[in-house]
Amino acid sequence: MTMTITSTSNAAAVLASPLKINGLEIKNRIILGPMAVLRPTEDGRPSEQSIAFLKRRAQGGVGLVIVGGSVCSERAWNESPFAPNLRFDKDEFVDDLKRLTAAVHEYGTPVFAQLFPSFGRMGVPRNDRWISAASPKPVSIGSGGLPNHLYIPGGRITPVPHEASAEEIKDIEVSVVAGARRAKAAGFDGVEIGAHMCYFYSSFLSPLSNQRTDEYGGSAENRARILRDVVAAVRAEVGTDYPVGLRMSVNDHMRGGQEPEGFAEVASHIARAGLDFISLSEGNYESMRDNVPSTSGNMLAHGEPQAFRKALGSGVRLFLSSTPDPKQAANAITAGHVDASMLARQMLADPDYALKVIEGREAEIVWCDHANSCLRRLILNVPVACHKNPEMGSEAPDTKRSSPGQEFAVWAAGNKVLMGAADTLARAAQKMK
Question: In DSSP terms, which residues pair with 114 in a beta bridge?
Answer without folding.
Answer: 192
